[in-house]
Amino acid sequence: xxxxxxxxxxxxxxxxxxxxxxxxxxxxxxxxxxxxxxxxxxxxxxxxxxxxxxxxxxxxxxxxxxxxxxxxxxxxxxxxxxxxxxxxxxxxxxxxxxxxxxxxxxxxxxxxxxxxxxxxxxxxxxxxxxxxxxxxxxxxxxxxxxxxxxxxxxxxxxxxxxxxxxxxxxxxxxxxxxxxxxxxxxxxxxxxxxxxxxxxxxxxxxxxxxxxxxxxxxxxxxxxxxxx
Length: 228
Description:
This protein has helices at about 5, 10-25, 25-35, 35-80, 85-110, 125-160, 175-205. By secondary structure, the protein is mostly helical. Helix 2 (about 10-25) runs antiparallel to helix 6 (about 125-160), helix 3 (about 25-35) packs antiparallel against helix 4 (about 35-80) and helix 6 packs antiparallel against helix 7. The N and C termini lie far apart (about 50 Å).
């Protein structure tokens, strides 16, 4: 099968993904509004998203190991042997991009990301849960949907032409690197559903199947109360 034949269905696949994701993106808000009737569905969605994020997180770890070894090899080649390999430099670039893109969903679910607001840490547990649900619904989900929509034609064209490195001795895999964009968008939407869904369960006092209280969100290792 040629690259053009593979690229043809990509647009249709993107539409199917968008249509299939739409109902699930409303799950955190539905949980916050209706509570127990949708809590079971929310927990099931969160479990699936967490499993996917864990797999991508392990892939990211491998990428970062490749990044470190590639940079070390590049330094040795340049300063010891006076050589430079374009392919090795691009491997480092690919590993850097894939490592950070694929680690992001796990970081969101694990609450290990850096917050940019200055109020979240000082809010009550219920208010933090409400902010997390609103943040996903109003900001994260629309942003990732826009990325998914607009990167579709870019990825399809890259596959259609078999896009490769502009360097003659570079890697012929640019089309695969660009495919990481929609994968990242979908994974972040899934992670956002899990993160906001857990917040919605806390908001309704249903975290862990319990009722009546709102538990504090788990703090990531090394995370402090201050935010940037």
